[in-house]
Task: inverse folding
């Protein structure tokens, strides 16, 4: 009887955690100032093993334990948001031209190409389809989507995924507020700051003053004293830092290839997390997950 009682107590203690889906658990870690969890962000999904920006590329990320998937958006002729990076469909679909010149049905009739340019069985997904797949499972980072801010907000609201998605832009706060102020505070918004820009400090000040959810994506070609000072300043303000390790020009040379091909993960990913980054966007999600788990920085 005593054993049964203890088991019941343990079950009741664990019930809140078990009732949370993974997306809610990740949001809780983001809100916890004591959390040392580093969030792995997979660029365009798992594009090495599935067509970029495809549902399969997203599903692969969910299956491997990635925390956030990055996607890009375009709008069709009949007003649907679809996942697409380029200004044309030439590289990633079996068609030619601009996505806005096709209806959704016309784009759906085409096939997605893989990284080698070959036709696959996969079809272009809508944002709604992608968010329903991600719901409760993974966070989402919308890169090329600011131009459709209101439409994105509507889809997130409809699918119940507002708290899972970050929208971003490199524009100053004043312009974002003027263009989308009526929905800006209803979503998670992250400014992209080019620390090599002379106006970087001024743009940062605008967001620190006005936006309560403090997420900052930082881009920098060199890891000089000014860059390090800017990162330290944002951390002191309690900001969550997002750094891209995709290629050297985005992260002062601390990139994925340095970690994997040159076998210098401490000098690349280690340096980035040493700066206090909460998010690392990568094209090598499997290897980054392995590295962070070895460091005790990912569950």
Result:
């Amino acid at each position: 009887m005593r054993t049964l009682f203890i088991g019941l107590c343990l079950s009741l203690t664990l019930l809140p955690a078990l009732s949370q889906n993974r997306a809610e658990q990740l949001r809780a870690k983001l809100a916890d100032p004591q959390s040392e969890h580093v969030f792995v962000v997979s660029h365009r999904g798992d594009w090495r093993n599935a067509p970029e920006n495809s549902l399969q590329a997203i599903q692969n990320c969910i299956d491997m334990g990635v925390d956030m998937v990055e996607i890009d958006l375009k709008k069709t002729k009949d007003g649907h948001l679809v996942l697409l990076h380029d200004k044309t469909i030439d590289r990633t679909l079996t068609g030619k031209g601009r996505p806005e010149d096709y209806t959704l049905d016309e784009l759906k009739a085409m096939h997605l190409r893989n990284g080698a340019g070959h036709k696959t069985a996969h079809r272009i997904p809508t944002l709604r389809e992608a968010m329903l797949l991600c719901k409760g499972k993974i966070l989402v980072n919308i890169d090329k989507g600011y131009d459709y801010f209101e439409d994105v907000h509507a889809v997130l609201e409809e699918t119940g995924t507002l708290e899972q998605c970050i929208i971003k832009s490199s524009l100053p706060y004043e312009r974002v507020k003027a263009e989308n102020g009526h929905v800006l505070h209803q979503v998670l918004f992250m400014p992209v700051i080019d620390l090599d820009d002379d106006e970087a400090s001024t743009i940062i000040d605008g967001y620190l003053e006005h936006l309560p959810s403090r997420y900052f994506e930082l881009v920098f070609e060199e890891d000089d004293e000014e860059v390090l000072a800017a990162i330290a300043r944002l951390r002191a303000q309690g900001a969550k830092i997002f750094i891209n390790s995709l290629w050297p020009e985005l992260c002062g040379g601390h990139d994925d290839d340095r970690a994997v091909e040159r076998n210098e993960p401490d000098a690349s990913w280690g340096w980035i997390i040493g700066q206090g980054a909460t998010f690392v966007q990568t094209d090598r999600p499997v290897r980054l997950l392995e590295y962070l788990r070895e460091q005790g920085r990912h569950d």
Summary: The radius of gyration is 20 Å. Residues 1-18 have pLDDT under 50 and may be disordered.
